[in-house]
Specification:
- The complex is a heterodimer of chains A (382) and B (404).
- With 382 residues, chain A is an all-alpha fold.
- Chain A is built from 15 helices and 2 strands.
- Chain A has a two-stranded antiparallel ribbon.
- In chain A, helix 3 runs parallel beside helix 8, helix 5 runs antiparallel to helix 6 and helix 5 packs antiparallel against helix 11.
- The longest helix of chain A has 30 residues.
- The C terminus of chain A is likely disordered.
- Chain B has 2 domains: 152 residues, Rossmann fold (3-Layer(aba) Sandwich), CATH 3.40.50.2300; 224 residues, 3-Layer(aba) Sandwich (Rossmann fold), CATH 3.40.50.
- Chain B contains 11 helices and 13 strands.
- In chain B, helix 9 links the parallel strand 8 and strand 9.
- Chain B is globular, with a radius of gyration of 21 Å.
- Classes of the chains: A mainly alpha (382), B alpha/beta (404).
- At the A-B interface, helix 3 of A face strand 2, helix 3 and helix 4 of B.
Amino acid sequence: MNGKSAAKEPFARVVRRDELPLWRRLGIRVIAAGLSLIVCALFIFLVTRSNPAAVYKSLVDGAVGTSRRTWSTLRDTAILLSIALAITPAFKMRFWNIGAEGQILVGGIATAAVMRYCGGISPFLLFVAIIAASLAAGMLWGLVPAVFKAIWGTNETLFTLMMNYIAIQLTSFFSIVWEAKKGSGTIGTINSDTKAGWISTSFMEGLFGKSNYSIIVLLVLLLTIGMYIYLKYTKHGYEISLVGESTNTARYAGVNVRLVTIRTMALSGAICGLTGFFMVSGSSHTISTSTAGGRGFTAIIVSWLAKFNPFIMIIVSFFLSFMSNGAIQIASEFKLNESASEVITGIILFFILGSEFFVNYRVILGRHHDKNESSTGKEGQA
Amino acid sequence: MKSAKKLAYLGMTAAILTGAAFTASAAEPVAKEDLKVGIIYIGDEQEGYTYAHMLGIEGMKEALGLEDDQVIEIFNIPEDETCAEKAMDLADQGCQIVFANSFGHEDYMIEAAEQYPDVQFCHATGYQAALSGLENMHNYFTAVYESRYVSGVVAGMKLAEMEANGQFKEENYAEDGSIKIGYVGAYSYAEVISGYTSFLLGLRSEFPNVTMEVKYTGSWADQALEKETADALIADGCALISQHADTTGAATACEAAGVPHVGYNVGMLDVAPTCHLTSASIKWAPYYTYAAQCILDGETIDTDWCQGYDQGAVWITDLGESVAEGTQEKVEDTWNAITEGLLHVFDTSTWTVNGETITSTADLEGFNGIEYINEDGYFMESEIGSAPAFSFVIDGVVELNQVF
């Protein structure tokens, strides 16, 4: 194909890139983040006519301005990270588990149930029961679509999505069964008097202040290391990547694809369930349909952006949590509706996700024939 | 003497409720320029209930002469742990007093109140402040039943006029010969029941022979559903519609069908210019001003605050053109009678349950052993705790469904 002989020159074409050096990949993302901040500033300026510098100050202030806010951001990071870790093995084997929301909710319901009905038993037993129940509930929610996929080849995307709706309805149902006051439709704080089943961090108060989420953060960090090892250095992890690359290859290599699918989804669901426990016991002390709050979907972005690398997920989830908590502060400080913070988060995500395109592809304007040819050659090699 | 007795009685019940009388520990007064007020709203200005609170905060700012940056308003906070986080964050920002306006916020306000004993937390429509035993936790509400009663009087006069003019149709009559009217409620619990009962009692003071059909929507604000529900009630033959839900859905249905309408929160003459009579409404500014003033003066805020017309906390919106003759005068007389204590909305001689007059609530289910009916023979709505407690479905009311 000769560009010169073509009668109509396309204005631009898109070519896949070779793997870029790390600094350039990072550079593109930093530029994207910077651009997103500029567009956000423009948006804020247009609606409030305030100084963009003040806007960024309030962004930082909102995310880490006080000890409480810093811990909230760290907690949100840990929760988001935990969900991302949960869905990663499934995604790595190309099982599109978009049912994290539901798996979190059933884990949360299980936690709430044990807290409500077994609040009187010794704290150690109580936590063992809560953790077992939340793991089991999440696992069950993950297993059902996996079994159907493994045996009957059902579509896991639709299946896991629909399981979310069942979980949301179950949560609404229990919101009525356990409601604090007839007619309120909300459960309210569970065990607010005894605080049974609450993850207490008061013993760390001297070090981290009153409202710290040190235990959750620590547990999720351990989980991160564990997941890294599991995926990279264990036979299971290797089987997952084999299945993800090609089920046929995996089968030739003697991998039981059904077993791996079911086992991996059980793990994925169980960790989501455990995240439900982190949320209910560790921070909200209640459960409602807003508990998962869309984070089961945001976590997919985290996992993808990090290319399934658990340590990079820490950075991505921190960035997203930082931005969204900061955006909330911008909205309230500049007398905007909370929806404004969603617009800001949306703009940031748009740029970050958009930057992935430029990491993987490059755009060539029509007239640069030489470059064009050389890069199509490269494409052929790749 | 009577009032002294009543006071003693109230003191007793308060003591029963809280387990012990509070020792008033007055805090240090706060200089006006140092005052910082935080408020957490369930919605925003798009939603009538929150809008009424926003007006109240605005009124407080004006009354006390506060600057804009002394008031931090947080919008669209759901009834979950976000509320606790925001309340504590407001405390971190230096607010001496934090309000929250939705029923489901209460647990989270209590959580915040435990963590910040030096900050005052005030929660609208709740009932747990006294039970929590926390000195810095407070509940507030208004005697909205007074305005419902008066709006009922307006409706009753309209029905009397319609009867005099022979405007009732055959379908308006129930089997027992009474006139059917309809009520679009949100949920079947005390706040709504107390509201429609006071409306009905006011209405019956002018037009006794009615049956009120109540249908619940299961939502505080659902325009389409409220319109649909009102349509169904009108189709069933209701000669007049009132509502306890936040949108203008019922007013729209009434205007289309030419049925008189009594609203809630805001006047609805713009959507129902010919049929809307008035709306029962709340003004929150008196409370917000009172509570903020307490902080300035270093005084203790009432654990349960509930005031009515004499404090300017409730009112009815401007009367529509279609009200019966003499309504304005009657409305003023009724307000006066309420203010002077001559008229008690929940006077037990005006209503029965299953044909019987209720003389005591202490042994009845749902009242936790508390006696709400006093020696003067009326149900002491919002006097013991600020939130509505009247939950009898009285004779003359037909609930078409139940939604909790």
